[in-house]
Amino acid sequence: MTVTTKQKTARKPLEIKATAGAGSTDVNAMFGEFMHAFEEFKQSNDQRLGELESRGGADALTQQKVARIDAALDGYKSAIDRATLEQARPALETGGATTRSDEYKDAFCAYVKRGEEKALSIGSNPDGGYLVPDETATEITRLLTSVSPIRSIAGVREISSSVYKKPVSVSGPAVGWVGETDVRPQTSSQTLAEITFPTMELYAMPAATSAFLDDAAVDVGQWIADEINTAFAEQESAAFVNGDGVNKPTGFLQATQVAQSSWNWGNIGYVPTGVSGDFPASDESDVLVDLVYALKSGYRQNANWVMNRQTQATIRKLKDVDGNYIWQPAAAPGGKATLMGFELVEAEDMPDIAADSASIAFGDFNRGYLIVDRQGVNVLRDPFSAKPYVLFYTTKRVGGGVHNFDAIKLLKFSVS
User: Fold this and answer.
1) Helices marked H in 93-219
2) Cβ contact 404:368 at 8 Å
């Protein structure tokens, strides 16, 4: 697409706020600004592509403008996500009131605020801390799902033991067609494999002053959930992508990677771009089409793209053979951007585009990756180690790993 000088001069200068609604709860207004920025991005990128076509190189000012709008889009998206999560957050307590609390919830509140242990002995072993009330545990899990990108799309199983064992059918029984009076040969048995998912301890240690805890308006359940969720989500997300399985879950990128043409069970298949550390020089989006169709149709119906912000910025500039942008923004606040019609999940722990990097994943993560949560979140109050602060050693046990190696495929930026 060639952009004429007349078209360039007819465009209005871009005006985007540096901070997209930071602290604002007007999600619809921020979404409108986001969509405006995306339209400006498309115009500026079209100008850049036109300069590349006509001159063989883009003007430096045009490239800077595209980069600036691209960064603004990421800022708008982050602000919208934060505001949407804030609006969806329910209150667990009301100013410390007891009319809506059961006996254990009141006792736990007294333990967190003042260290009282009355009526808590049934909740947990005092040496290991006390179990948080069910409402708080549910809120922690809900917020983790909202802020942890892989948890939001993976399969999740809650267990009461420390290890989850799952039998997997690697090959089904032999079957065949026979005539009405033909002899029925005995079929071979299906091949089963057992995959184990041990849970590992994940901890956070938020701190508070005694004055803060004495405040009657403090919602201790919500405070604990808010304090630990970001820390838990960051550690979880890193492990679900790249974890080595040593005292942490095993990430899906840690599975053995083989070319899709020689894929077999126990490995993750990949499609090479044909260029080390880059997309092909022409028809860049074709390798993404190849990746989509490397996945069987039964998995494509619920498939997601997974990549980090830098990779998404590169993808955002690509067009299909008809000149349409293959990346499209979410249709509504709180939604997900799409790439070639499939939802895109941004995971910062995915690698940047580099030589031989598997920077893009595509698959049905609900069927491909399993997260195992052991029931309960424990809190141990420590008023002695960091006076005048009170520390809260908070733990939960989490495991994870690939349990269907056919449901996830990778795009590898390699020659072969």
Assistant:
1) 103-114, 134-147, 210-214
2) yes
What tokens were used for 309?
A: 């912000």
Closest CA to 249 of 325, 327, 196, 177: 196
How far is residue 25's CA from residue 87's CA, in Å, rounded to a whole number?
A: 7
Query: Which pLDDT value is given to residue 416?
Result: 92
Beta-strand pair 267-272/163-171: unpaired
Q: Do residues 369 and 155 lie in contact, with contact meaning Cβ atoms separated by under 8 Å?
A: yes
Separation in Å, CA 373 to CA 159, 326, 383:
6, 36, 29
Least confident of 110-119, 234-243, 312-321: 110-119
Q: How confident is the model at residue 135 (pLDDT cuts 50, 70, 90)?
A: confident
Do residues 402 and 383 make contact, with C-beta atoms less than 8 angstroms apart?
no
Instruction: List 201's β-bridge partners, or say none.
Output: 397
Q: Are 413 and 382 in contact (CB under 8 A)?
A: no
Burial environment of residue 211 by CB neighbours within 10 A (0 to 12, 13 to 18, 19 or more): exposed
Q: In this structure, what token pair is assigned to residue 61?
A: 């000012």
Q: Apex CA 269: angle with CA 366 and CA 192, to 5°?
A: 65
Contact 307, 346 (CB under 8 A): yes
User: CB-based burial of residue 179 (10 Å sphere; 0-12 exposed, 13-18 middle, 19+ buried)?
Assistant: exposed
Q: Which two tokens stand for residue 118?
A: 């009355």
DSSP 325: B
Give the mean model confidence (pLDDT) for residues 376-392: 92
Helix (H) or strand (E) holding 192: strand 191-198
Q: How far apart are CA 169 and CA 189, in angstroms?
A: 11
What single DSSP character describes residue 108? H
| Integer Cα distance of 170 and 325 in angstroms | 39
The token pair at 9 is 């001069």
Contacts of 310 (CB under 8 A, 6+ apart): 352, 353
CA distance 162 to 349: 26
User: 297: how many CB neighbours lie within 10 A of its CB?
Assistant: 7
